Amino acid sequence: MTAMTATTGLDPESLAFTLESIDEFAQRELSEGLLIELDERDEFPEGLVRRMCGEELGVQLLFLPEQYGGMGGSAVDVYRVCERMAAIDLGIATSVLATVLGSEPITVGGTPEQRALWLGRIADEGILMAYGATEPDAGSDLAALKTTAKPVVEDGGEVVYLLNGAKQWISNGGVADAATVLALAPGGPTWFVVDGNAPGLTRGEPEDKHGIRLSNTAALFLDNVRVPAEQLVGGVEGHGLVQAQQVFGYTRLMVAAFGLGAGWAALDRAIPYSTERIQGGGPLSAKQGYTHKLIVPHAVRLEAARAAIEETAERIDAGEGALNAEGAIAKYLATEAGNAAADAAIQALGGYGYTHEYVVEKIKRDVRITTIYEGTSEIMEMTVARDRWQQHLKTRGDHYHAAARELEALDAPSPGVGADVAALAHHALAELMEACRLARLTRHQHVLLRVGQLAALVEGAAALVRRAARAAEGGLGPKASRRFDARLLAAMSRANARNVAMTVGTDAVRWVTGTGDGSGVEQLVARLGVPAIQAAQVGLMADLDGIADGLYGRT
Ligand SMILES: Cc1cc2nc3c(=O)[nH]c(=O)nc-3n(C[C@H](O)[C@H](O)[C@H](O)COP(=O)(O)OP(=O)(O)OC[C@H]3O[C@@H](n4cnc5c(N)ncnc54)[C@H](O)[C@@H]3O)c2cc1C
To answer: Beta-carbon neighbour count of residue 104 at 10 Å?
Structure first.
């Protein structure tokens, strides 16, 4: 899955069939009433999850290479399936994610024998896995881990490791048949596969959580747990943190798709609700102050995030590598957009939205985790900022100017998709980064992380521009989502580009001026191109009207 070679994955018909099978299973087994009840009872539906990951549905097969009995899904396949699962229930989707996460250290770093054994068991037996990285005192900073793995030579001469420590917030922790556990061996952090029934392994009570209450989250306690040396992932100590990084490139796209699926699930409840709900003499859907605040901007943000996810997935499938920074951008954009969309959906349903029965409040509680697990939003900002800062230095400040020129070149053959305005945002970001370099402003961590945020927004805008341009030419990939037509995508892209450009222009002035003495503000505003960004807002209201019409099927 993390290979550097091209992957085609499922053919489009098989992907469509997989998505249909998931929908059918959900319609049959996961009624809305049941999901609400399980959420209220804070219950993990273990039997249902085992059936989903067993012969009946076999959803886990998508994530496993074909040589080990899986379907060898590509990154695009995985994004489409994760989006669909999240729209059904994010807790259940998390349980599937946990098995994938748990297997990924083996996929990226395991020996051929370990892969055959463990990936084979996931494929054939549908075992549930857990991924044990986080500890009570080691979360974002995994290198602070304290769990130890001590090698000992037993009487017969066999080398085994004794694991001691605790793992915190482990999805499937209470139920997994096996877990990959990161522990500090003499050679450094190392992954071990630990059997669920290994003596000395105990599991905490399920956590009483804000959301994803249909997933099991529990601590793992390791007290002299004996792990044979052949269960040391890859057979060599000290590669654990590198392998954990490799895992992220792929799994962050899964979580990004979760944010996208959950965000759209919330909007897909708010949109029909607002056509039925009559207030002030007409349906809410006819009120601009409602749609243009609670619906349209969220649909736009989600589609910018989709563009970033889809493009990154296609590039991973084309063999461009793990694309860690792009994965971080996709996760950041999609999970923040999903969270904001779900919150807006509660508002859009008013008092009804605040009750369990209307489900949007459950989606809001569920989607909240996506900005936390698999790297928090702040860690995503840092990851993006550091990577793009290096690009800025390496290119002597030209990185985002060059990207802007590419967008400008796209504007002539593909007018009307907002490429010109996205280019303004890129130029402004390049100027902000240069101003930061000259005045050494990234010594303020807050400024560095704001640069990361703006870089993600700008790159999301560029991805949506390219997606809209491809859609206009009929060139979207065969497995791309086709929910919106080219005209609507173009309007969304223009609106998004304007918004992003405005945010970059305004924030750049804020952070540069806010860290300085107030001199040179006018020159800064000119260098950033703020007047052009302001002028580019012409047409915004017409686009928002057009997007609302498109979302409500009024065109
Ligand atoms: C429901 C759930 C399921 C989970 N499942 C798993 C799982 O299956 N396996 C697993 O290993 N882990 C799992 N996790 C753990 C999850 O990945 C961590 O909670 C997450 O990485 C954050 O770590 P932390 O909770 O220790 O927070 P911290 O790292 O303490 O962060 C707290 C806050 O500080 C911010 N912060 C941290 N470092 C910095 C910094 N250097 N600069 C600025 N701000 C910073 C963070 O962004 C965050 O806002 C799960 C967590 C939950 C809640």
So the answer is: 26
